[in-house]
Amino acid sequence: MQPRNMSMSGVVDLAAVKAANEAKQKAEQARAEAARQGGAPAVPADNLVFDVDEAGFETSVLQLASEVPVVVAFWSRRSAQSEQLVQQLAGLAAEYRGRFVLAKVEGESAPMLLQQFAVQGVPAVFAVVAGQALPLFQGVAPEEQVRATLDQLIQVGEERFGLTGIQVADAPAPVDAPAPAGPYDALLDAAMDALNANDFAGAVRAYQNVLADDPANPDAKAGLAQAELLGRVTQLDPQQTRKDAAERPADVPAQIAAAELDLAGGHIEDAFGRLVDTVRVTAGDDRDAARVRLLELFEVVGADDPRVGKARTALARVLF
Description:
By secondary structure, the protein is an alpha/beta fold.
């Protein structure tokens, strides 16, 4: 259905019709009174869009229309077009911040209003301004055309009826709510406490408990790899480890120990490079042991670290 009546020229009387000059005078008096009392109270942004039925139309639309243009959208749950249009108008109501409000009327539940507004089909959009109903359009329309119609409506409301809109309250600053506790948060916290206390065996047990129920848990997998690494490194003599690695370049356990010492000391690229070189110069079970330990060290550092990606590429080159 194509939009029609994109004009402010037609005016349909309602039972609550008032003369334009009287409406304008009343609006000016209301603003003066509000200013005398310190200004009109701001309304929440959620109040800019609301549902209305026949019983509440007079109080929620006709009375509000003496303060701000009210766009009345007739829609149906059986019409995808009308649902789309209502969503579009609701977004524009939020954007225009109180220069108009949107009243949604589900046509099936309001036959008298459909008759009163002479609605031919949904979606159909009208405006109520100071007790007068103005046909806007029927059917969907491009957003720029809808905006132009709303701008014209706002101009008519202000110039003819003295309606300058309502003040909208700023949204409160979001409060950072604590994230809900996950099913393994307590165990993961206990594991971290154990790591901080250098109780690496206790941390390993806590992470293993999580992985027993959730084998793919990324925090537990990374934590377990870290706890096992630190547990092994604390048993090493750094001087002797480096001496053994320098003297026996093809000795896989010696190279693994030195690589783990490098990693624990923050020398990540050195650790990865050492084990990639070890994979290159070894074969069989020794080669596989170096490769598996390198993959475990990737878990410690984390897959998102660019040094891990670089080392994976280097490992692939020496393997294939």
